[in-house]
Amino acid sequence: MINNKKAYFNKVIMVLKKVLPPFITIFAFLLIYFPIMVITLLSFNDSKKDYTFRGFSLRWYREILLDDDLFLAIFNTLTIAILSTIIATIVGTITAIGINSLTKNNRIKMMILNNVPVINPDIVTGISIMLVLGLFPISFGMKTMLLAHVFFSIPFVVLTVLPKLKELDPNLFDAALDLGCTRFKAIRKVIIPSIKTGIIGGALIAFTMSIDDFVISYFTTGPAFQNVSIYIYTSLGRKSFSPAVYSYNTLVVFVTIFTLLIINKFNKKQKV
Amino acid sequence: MKKIVLFIALLTVTFVITGCGRISDLNREKLYVLNWGEYMDEDLVADFEDEFKVDVIYDEAPSNEEMEIRIKSGRTPYDIAIPSDYMIDKLRQQNLLKEIDYTKLSSLDDVSIKAEVSALYENKGYANYLVPYFWGTIGIMYNLDTVDEADLTGWDLLFENSDKYDAGMYNSSRDAVGSALLYLGYNVNSNDADELAEAEQALKDGNFVEFGEDGLKGRVIEGNLDMALVYSGDYFDELYAFEEEEETITFGYFVPETTNVWVDAFVIPTTSENTDMAYEFINYFLREDIAEANADWVGYAPVIDEVYTTLTTGEDAYDYDNYDPYPVGSTRVIYEFISDERFDKLNQILNAVKAE
Amino acid sequence: MHRLKKLSLPYLIWMIVLVVAPSILILILSFSDLDIYNLGSFKFSLEHVRELNRPEIIVAVKNSIRLSFYATLACFVIGYPVAYYLANMKSKNKTLLVTLLIVPVWSNMILRIIAWEKLFYPKSILNDVFNLSLDLIGKDIAIIIGMVSLYLPFMVLPIYSVLEKMDKSLIEASKDLGANGFVTFKRVILPLSMSGVVSGTIMTLLPAMTAFALPERLSRGKTLLLGNIIEEYFVSSNKMNLGSLISIMLMGVIVIMFVAILKFDKEGETLI
What we know:
The structure holds three protein chains of three kinds.
Chain A: H1 2-43, H2 59-66, H3 68-100, H4 104-119, H5 122-135, H6 142-167, H7 170-178, H8 183-194, H9 196-211, H10 215-220, H11 228-235, H12 244-271
Helix pairs in contact in A: 1-12, 2-12, 3-6, 3-9, 3-11, 4-6, 6-9, 7-8
Chain B: H1 2-19, H2 22-25, E1 29-35, H3 42-52, E2 54-60, H4 64-73, E3 80-81, H5 85-93, E4 97-98, H6 115-121, E5 131-143, H7 156-159, E6 167-170, H8 173-184, H9 193-205, E7 210-212, H10 215-222, E8 227-231, H11 232-245, E9 251-254, E10 258-266, E11 268-269, H12 275-286, H13 288-298, E12 301-302, H14 305-312, E13 331-333, H15 340-355
Parallel strand pairs in B: 1-2, 1-3, 6-7, 6-8, 10-13
Antiparallel strand pairs in B: 4-11, 5-8, 5-9, 5-10, 5-12
Helix pairs in contact in B: 8-9, 8-15, 9-15, 13-14
Chain C: H1 9-30, H2 47-51, H3 55-87, H4 94-106, H5 109-120, H6 125-130, H7 140-165, H8 168-176, H9 181-210, H10 213-218, H11 226-236, H12 240-264
Helix pairs in contact in C: 1-12, 3-7, 3-9, 4-7, 7-9, 8-9, 11-12
């Protein structure tokens, strides 16, 4: 009798082990994608009111180009994201190379400084930068937002590049120097190619952090310079809010998914 | 070599992009204006720029407090700001405003500010520091389908019906406590500890289900709220939007007999560097034709007598019940700035109410 | 490679200006009556420390701890099985699936928050399209669901990374030594995946504790978290000094958490 119960219990566990994880995974995906699905639905809604569904329409997709405020916000978001990613990646990589060459104690001190923006809550970072920049006689706007984005992106680049640098054989650099390379050439030809994946990874993270930022941008922007998040937050509930922003978001998501699928197919073909 | 070229290219791109805005600034004067969102016809501003050969750098703030912060921080040298009554009072008390020389406003020879408007602030300390812009009331926006007309009796509509209706309160401590004080029959600027305690209790007993700002009017329309405290401007924004789309209007605006009236006005902060042009800007918007066009665009009640008369008579007259913020026979009160401590107390009251 | 260490110098200066200086400024603001707009003389005082017992702050702390705890717990309970399932998947599309999990993070966060907000109201687009009405707005559960939807990828990813790289032979060895699945999990897999769990927990707990847009929108403006209080003090109620003090204390709590983690994770390559 006892053995039967135990066997039954084990069997239940076996079934659960097989069935539960996929179920939970599907549930997780649904939970994460639910708002995206609703946004997609709203992007096709033939009505400005988002509590009723009037029918299918592509009008909001056209509206992305027509609504000046939204278009400007999108342009600003992309400009800041691209610029801050480029700057942060270059500076971050160079800095990581520098940090990697420090003595252990100095390296730890630098990393503590480096990690402050990473662990600080957005709101504290945003306010800190706002306070410090407020001491200088500069007007807030695109430049201050760009500075803030570069500021919070560089640490991530450093964190992604540094591990790759550690894996590098330090003798290779010295060997290159011995063979007559200048330091710049040695960096370019020896170090950079080996840490390429780290650099790309860091750039990707920097881009992601920048494109979606709200809180830090909110505190460091100036007259009439909005990114998409600020546009949404400030125009919600007012006449100036355009459902075209749902269309923009839907496009971003689907283009990204599409690109990933293509890369995935490409990678699979390569392996074969 | 390649690296140097790349570096220079990058630098150039950066400078070009960040310098892009500079191309227009080369020769023109600048005028910095700070206003609420959607509160001035942009075409009229563009016309002003053409007429006076200036670049108007137009900045928006969502609240009086943010306007104050921006003016105080000095990051932008605003020439014009358009805050509300109590904030004008506060800014003046902090010596942040320039006194207005009304003789420089030639338009005032041809038009006059409504007597009811000037009467509101004429004996107050800030009377000579502003030129009124628009005015309105606070009241209760309600869903026509769910709210019984018989209940539209007074402030008790908002404070005594929590078992019947879902009500929203504005997320502004001054207006929340102010409306409670009005409900209790007290002075809207009261700083009496007992009266404020009663107001806090009234707000808690009101069982407000939502605290919001611009979102409240949408909720009433959707039906996710039965009513909410709003500004007259909120109501009119929706009213005009519905009329334009030719939709059935499912919401109403009820103004109790005694309520707060707000007056937004032009002020010239001490940060202003282009004060002469600031006067031109104010003067421009006082011109009868411009004021009329602007009042038509914004939709709120104009402060200029002649413009008000024009807009409320004739064919396409503004003929709405609540368009006139100060109808004959009603009682209207205006906010004053008492002290930072009082404002802190109001904020604490609102936060305590939310915590319930 | 020591000759390269000077490359990190510019960054040091940058960080001193943007991290150390604001921290000092915030410290001064916290413990004095310095007026940020009228930088002049100031007196040190502990007045703001006394203000910390304001009811609204106590309520906000309780809300932050309560909601972030539940949200993080939910993320862990859902996230670990998902990470485990994905890590052990034998499909060629494994990385694709994991990346798909992160895609929504690239779509605008504010928009996703608003999508949830709209769904939780009784009158919403769900009425028309699915004949459904969710009346969860304003309730804690709405905030928790929103947080989980937003932060789940941050919990899954670190755990997945660690599980994926785990040496499978350890599991085999455990089984060879006679342990059943459950014991293997408890004694081998779970401990080895701890660093991932810790990373995931931090990346969920911190944003949850300090969020402000999410709780504001999903609680109908009623439930205030620390992020909301800080924002209010800096933007609407002009209590920058008190806001600074709260920020400093928040940073202090986070630093303590990190130090505790570093002690726990001795080899800790997590952030240094």
